[in-house]
Write the structure tokens for this entry.
Amino acid sequence: MKYNRVLIKISGEALGDNNENIAYKNILFFANEIKKVVDKKIKVGIVIGGGNIYRGNFVEKTNIQQIDGDYMGMLATMINSIAFKKVLENIGIKVKVLSSIEINKLFELCNHDKMQEYLDQNYVIILAGGTGNPCFTTDTTAALRAIEMKADVLLKATKVDGIYDSDPMKNKNAIKYNQITYQEAIEKNLKVMDLTAFAMCMENKVPIIVCNIFQENSILKILEGESLGTIVV
């Protein structure tokens, strides 16, 4: 199946490396992968996590409340979104960043109408700031934004090439699923996305594909119908 409108969720960790929280070489690689998709006239929305800058375990080590920690994570997604926007623009892609949290000098406020308007004008839209509320992950944000932009698919771009029955980084005998249902993913408590995101996509019939963002051309191949990664339907 070919897809014409996609929401891509990129983990914050993927933007960094062992030396830098925001590694230019990683962002440039991802930007060029996005450009291949845009050149095929596919509408693209992007949600970026903040884990390269802020990790939730910081809360556990301090007296900071979870809600304050969540807002720190939202701000981290904004930093990543600005960095990604600038690199995309440098390679000739039209980009708008819409934020769930109002910062007038940097972003327009995210709403459904504005998302549709910019997609219709062939902008890539980057959706920053999470849902704007604490206690929700960027996976849930991705599910929400995919629903709002009427995406054909939610593509979760990670460091692994799909969903496994256990962590393939720790278990060399982990078994990969080529296809799995939302209900199975929820019942098996698979950690690739949180349960709220799975449930929202199930209710709104948005398929999820998990793939390796570091595999060159993987995003374009999937959107053009090639069977890569794991699909959740």
Observations:
- The first helix runs from residue 12 to 15.
- The two ends are 13 Å apart (CA to CA).
